[in-house]
Amino acid sequence: MRWPTGVAGLCFGADYHPEHWPRHIWIQDMDLMRQAGVNLVTVGSTAWSRLEPAEGEYEFDWLDDTLDLLADNDIRAILAIPTSSPPPWFGLRHPDALTVDDRGNRLGHGSRDTYCVCAPAYRSACLRLTRELATRYRHHPALSIWQVHTTYRTVCHCDHSSRSFQLWLRERHGDLATLNEAWSTAVWGQRYSDWAQITAPRATTDAPNPAQALDFRRFNSDEMLTHFGEQQTVLRQYTPHIPVTTTFEIGDDVPIDHWRWSKEVDIVSMASYPDRVDRGAEEQTAFIADLARSLAGGRPWLLKEQATGLIHTPDGPHTFEPGRLERHAMTQIARGARGVMFEQWRAPTGGATAWRSAMLPHAGPNTRLFREIRRLGDMLPGLAELDGAAVRAKVAIMWDEPSWWALTGPSAPTPHVDYLGVVRQAHRVLWRHDVLTDFTAGETDLSGYRLAIIPHLYLATETIADNLAGWVAQGGTAVITYLSGTTDHTGRIHAGGLSGVFASLIGVRGEEAYPMLPDQSVRLSNGATGRVWSEHLHLDGAETICGYRGGTLDRQPAITRHALGDGHVWYVSTQLDDTDFTDLLDAIGILPSEADPDVETVERETDDDTYRIVINHGDKPTAINATGTDLVSGKPAEGGYQFLL
Amino acid sequence: MRWPTGVAGLCFGADYHPEHWPRHIWIQDMDLMRQAGVNLVTVGSTAWSRLEPAEGEYEFDWLDDTLDLLADNDIRAILAIPTSSPPPWFGLRHPDALTVDDRGNRLGHGSRDTYCVCAPAYRSACLRLTRELATRYRHHPALSIWQVHTTYRTVCHCDHSSRSFQLWLRERHGDLATLNEAWSTAVWGQRYSDWAQITAPRATTDAPNPAQALDFRRFNSDEMLTHFGEQQTVLRQYTPHIPVTTTFEIGDDVPIDHWRWSKEVDIVSMASYPDRVDRGAEEQTAFIADLARSLAGGRPWLLKEQATGLIHTPDGPHTFEPGRLERHAMTQIARGARGVMFEQWRAPTGGATAWRSAMLPHAGPNTRLFREIRRLGDMLPGLAELDGAAVRAKVAIMWDEPSWWALTGPSAPTPHVDYLGVVRQAHRVLWRHDVLTDFTAGETDLSGYRLAIIPHLYLATETIADNLAGWVAQGGTAVITYLSGTTDHTGRIHAGGLSGVFASLIGVRGEEAYPMLPDQSVRLSNGATGRVWSEHLHLDGAETICGYRGGTLDRQPAITRHALGDGHVWYVSTQLDDTDFTDLLDAIGILPSEADPDVETVERETDDDTYRIVINHGDKPTAINATGTDLVSGKPAEGGYQFLL
Amino acid sequence: MRWPTGVAGLCFGADYHPEHWPRHIWIQDMDLMRQAGVNLVTVGSTAWSRLEPAEGEYEFDWLDDTLDLLADNDIRAILAIPTSSPPPWFGLRHPDALTVDDRGNRLGHGSRDTYCVCAPAYRSACLRLTRELATRYRHHPALSIWQVHTTYRTVCHCDHSSRSFQLWLRERHGDLATLNEAWSTAVWGQRYSDWAQITAPRATTDAPNPAQALDFRRFNSDEMLTHFGEQQTVLRQYTPHIPVTTTFEIGDDVPIDHWRWSKEVDIVSMASYPDRVDRGAEEQTAFIADLARSLAGGRPWLLKEQATGLIHTPDGPHTFEPGRLERHAMTQIARGARGVMFEQWRAPTGGATAWRSAMLPHAGPNTRLFREIRRLGDMLPGLAELDGAAVRAKVAIMWDEPSWWALTGPSAPTPHVDYLGVVRQAHRVLWRHDVLTDFTAGETDLSGYRLAIIPHLYLATETIADNLAGWVAQGGTAVITYLSGTTDHTGRIHAGGLSGVFASLIGVRGEEAYPMLPDQSVRLSNGATGRVWSEHLHLDGAETICGYRGGTLDRQPAITRHALGDGHVWYVSTQLDDTDFTDLLDAIGILPSEADPDVETVERETDDDTYRIVINHGDKPTAINATGTDLVSGKPAEGGYQFLL
């Protein structure tokens, strides 16, 4: 295993910004880091303007100094290529490389991510800087991992972007006739007769072309991956032994197809920022952790960035309750993280991140927060042996970002599909019952799984349908929700309507959709409530599990089950709430008979040992029956073991 | 009668897009159209990029083929001049002809309606295409009607637009002194000293000039009418016998003064897209139908575009319940439509309209929807004789789009006037009682009507006041709501305040307005509730019907009645809800003693016959007393006739 | 005293726009003004396009005429330099001087305030016009006051603005290293290496730099003050004896630091536009009046602009109830205004202000409104002697616009601090108890005050802390709310965290913040409810007054009191509602034992006399015990005096 170079045990640290502070503070930092057990920090992630204060002029002394200090203190560095924060001089000198919004307005500098990833000036400036850093630090003993960029996110609508999009489209579609067909440009008279006519989507007078929007998301994912790859190539050339990564983040505004990217990065690094203050934060933490492990192919991954003390909700910040920091870290380690790292080491006194949380808060080390950090740092070495134990899930949830994009893009079947919400719901219901899940892609071999949940796999092919059918026939159980199988990879609706290429798999033909408005719902015969969507189904091999009651679809099937070989395919044609979805999974028989809703349990195993990680999210002490060794205390544990995390 | 050329009986069809499909589908289409009874389709409406794939290069073969196929199958065509969807090459070649928004951003191609109607390049490209189509198809046997554009709607704020606006203003106002006076440019120092200083309204630093906004709406209506007229002139030159139309649509964002336009089109074609899922959809359908008939001067009109299966609400789509499609068609035919046509024939598999409804849904002909289409197609021939029977209303509602624009434009007296809502309310209350209404303009001769409702006729002249007074004096009853008569045609407030030129007509002088906030209301002495507006009235000939109770206006008149010759003028100084407005009309004596709220009835007559169209919108069968012939079944009907539509 | 030149007693009038009307109306105006007792009007405030219809061509005849008429009628004029409304020709000729928004879109003309205050063409055009007006009218007998501009408000983001900002920054920060430090540009790699890299803040890709946003607000305040000063210099040169003013307005979008400005204007002129329909309008009126008096250093000030009849709420307009106009005027005069003036004299018939209120409404002089105006005009001469009586407050509220800007700018500690709301709350609670308040700045000598409330003094220095500590030690009581003392003047967080430089003053150290979301609250041990913010406090000299109950901070201090010399410092670490804040002030002992919530009372005194102004905001008559002279009626008043305003 190539990673993490030089760090024994689990990684623990944060983004470290010596450039924010005078050097005497660095000395304090080293001391406090040692106290806290920090063994890995990310350096330089937004320091371009400090490293290259004017075009082609470099100042590396401070970074030399920092890395030396780290090495002296036995702390390793993720050395960041700070391509996400071009300096102010860059935008002034290359205004054509600044981001342009979808109305054609060139955005100003004055934040981070102020670039067009397609701009030639940006691309060459990145490569130059990467080469400088690689040359200078290739042999530095602190160097552990290269990180390119921070999170890739900025989408630009300028002419550079249009030109790169055209090239990408040529590659993808081959010729214009194919593109015109794939994009249905005959609709509303958008037939292209020259590649030059195609632009990055811009604000326009009426509804935009949904296929153009979808391909533009894909293009951005690929173009950013190319940018990543360019730096990776340089870095590998100089330091073939050092892994190269970037930070993944899951979100509406992130145009990244993580399945494609996870094949290219040497380490899956994940950012985790839950946005709910209630138990939802713990669910989201587990969700991100399971997704990261799945993207890493079940191998260890790095929790690269998270808050130490705040949940950033859409309505404002919320401060972690005591212990929450540790519990999140435990969740991540239980689910395969080879370390937990945080957004920043020391809270800055100004700038956009001054009020975001850090390992070391404004009030300094004599604080509840820093005490928790130290306690966590003390605990981690004892948990290192977990790293060798496999995390094995019996349930798979299908994850497909292009389907997400298509279903929430322009001219979707209904504006009310919440793709991420539905995937999270499936994960959440299982999480509450301590059923571990992996995430899978359409063509993943499912043979290790008992159950596969396929939420809204809108973009689908016969190949995927066959993959699922083959696995079901051998005894698998699939739960497929509405708007799956409906379109091809460009979003073109398959012949025959709603069930598309999944018709024979689910044994049902969906004739007509009855989408629901936000204030509408429908009753089901089993007492459940349906929302968002309903559809007029014709059984074609499947049997009705429950039907609609009332409304136009009264007495028609709502949830069906199709026996296929040794397995079954369930089809859910409406949106269930958590309780009803739980009942459904219970009926399938995947949920354990009892689970303490306050306690999260993950089991892992090696050939010899079984590990049970138990995390108490409730506010009361609780007891478990276990015999073995308590890895936290290092002491033997016996039946009726009392613990409180 | 010139229209519709070559179609016997009522028209039935949709927009047909052969360019979306390969030719073998067309053959299926012809067969299915015949099965459904389709006799008229609109062809080419968005096919510019297919007809002229590069500037000056034409591809007509596919359209030749389509029209031949249609003619062979005895289906006639509305041949569309697709000026609303310029091809991608057009914007690339003539970027100055793309739409500019009100902040000066040039919008991209990537949708339909991507043009500036004032751009010379656009205007000449349109004329060139029109000539090509006219030349080629002038003698084609399928050609029944020319349609120019789809719905005119796109407003542009570019320099072309400013220049055309200046020319229009010169024509309207003559000289700058007059314009400065009309626009009150002395306010906030906006006095113009050169025509070149006047621009299309652009986003600015504070409140814009309301008169400029109003004139810009009018200008757009006229400029678009000029564009329409240019194509019409060409088409008439080649095919003097073929009527020319365009599609009307009623909406906030449509800058069209339909009274002016209805004089120019050869056929009034209307789009009908209700946006409420409850009975409001039926009310809106009848409203649009009555308005279309009124715009057509009582003559037949064409329901040109509507959904077959979806109500597009602001919150998302809702699917028609079974039978709703037919009921809407019946409402339209009952109210004078010479045919019902739909948005699209066959649901496309991609593009912006993929999830909009069609006569032939994705799931094909073996569907509830297509069966309803066929049933409707079967029913229509029997109803053709209705077309000769007059639709006679005894109530008129005044309709004035410029008043709408002024009242909902910048710096209006209150932001809470809902002009369209109030007009619809008047129509709705009467519709619920099966009282048929026409819509009229300010100077329409009202002698055929018993009652005229004048909602918010904000822009008014002495001439209109005299017209109303003369008709009232002869026995008419007028109901006038607040903010009527207040300003002249440019929005300048008439001397004397709120009652303006209607003071002597309504016999009341409004001293001061007391607008209400959304959460405020006022009680009236008759138990009614007033909202949005109230005013301090002084009787000047009128008597008080009911007064305000509570608040500043306690005991002051709220609703008044002015006896004028043999008639009366009622003035309503506040916003009533449906129930209270119903009571008011009831007090006036215009409502029949009973009406089944579920059943819509329209009576029409020829010299010899009386036709009664009865539509049951309820969910239970109902019976009517009637003797005659059931036009749907063709069988004799007798008393206590049981029917369920 | 230099002001107001030539007006005996209190000023009464409005903005007068003869340019809106033909001359024969002016003659009526003079007559009606005399009837109403008008003695001062503002002329020319938006008349640039009338005064200079083309560049360098002037038309002064109408203004000569107007001023002569005014002088003949013994009415004096505030002569306005109309720099806030450049004419249409100006924008056409100098497009670079039009406002640019933060996305780089140049806004159009078509309103007022369409300029960039930094544009050289604008600056020279202003000076030219000022010189013309000063030259022509320097000796006119009507001339009483010069007013420059109306309210300064327009912020521009163009290149001129960027260049002026750079110059201002050089002056403020001296060198780039200092600026980089002050702005924390190390965060997110925004280190500037050349002044030219710094721009006016523009829309950017992620969170902007908060220090840049704050300095840009300050820059705008200073740049506008420079613009004001340029005109003032010219005017003083020609008419050293005539005071020069501009109009202050308090609002979110006004980038003016009024403490700085109040030193430069010769007269503090204030606009007062309450936006609530309930008693809030009266509270806001008193708030603005007290603030104006404070800005004027306790000297007389001018209520320069207010509505006569409308409250402009965010949801639309509300009409004044009878008497409200007079009550607001009384509130202003009671609190030191040397006159009350209104937005406009005569309601225009068109333009953006047609539906705003005026002294003379559309319905003319025979109206309730004009009768109230006349009654007010009759009343004022009797109140003139009040002007010599001092207004003495025993409570000070600290007012700091930069703290407001920083707390509501980007990346603030929480988005939910409502700075203005909290200042208003403090004022409101005291106002309800007839406790008069002044507003003070951080370094104001507080020796005359018993109590100082310091709401959210986020930007603070040791000097301010020392000033407060010194005053408290001598017996003062300070109430300091959370997020005070936290940062330096650039918004950089002081070492040690939340309590910053106030730590020793408040005797408390704030370790960690627990901001609350809008739907969250926390109970306090005294039964109060906390919102928005809470924090983990460590006592360091202070004692706990009440604590948090429940939640993470259960049993921790919430409100503390620190004995310091002869005085006390109270610290309130959460947001209280009105009732709980009232209880707090009551506990401090500043509230009188009883106060009629409907009656507002202000006492003023000269060496010889005591004046009591009593305003009844309730809807029932009320009686007061007073012996003396009723200034309104001029008659003796005795005990149990019955009055109803």
Automatic annotation (TrEMBL), chains A, B, C:
Residue positions of the active site: E305 (nucleophile)
Enzyme Commission (EC) number: 3.2.1.23
Catalysed reactions, as listed in the record: Hydrolysis of terminal non-reducing beta-D-galactose residues in beta-D-galactosides
Domain Glycoside hydrolase family 42 N-terminal residues, every copy: 15-380
Keyword Zinc-finger: no
GO annotation, cellular component aspect: beta-galactosidase complex
UniProt keyword terms in alphabetical order: Glycosidase, Hydrolase, Metal-binding, Zinc
Beta-galactosidase trimerisation domain: residues covered: 393-588
EC top class, as a word: hydrolase
GO biological process: galactose metabolic process
Residues where Zn(2+) binds: C116, C156, C158
Stretches assigned to the Beta-galactosidase C-terminal domain: 598-641
Residues holding substrate: R112
Matches recorded under Pfam families: Glyco_hydro_42, Glyco_hydro_42C, Glyco_hydro_42M
GO MF: beta-galactosidase activity; metal ion binding
Family, per entry: Belongs to the glycosyl hydrolase 42 family.
Protein name: Beta-galactosidase
Protein species of origin: Stackebrandtia endophytica
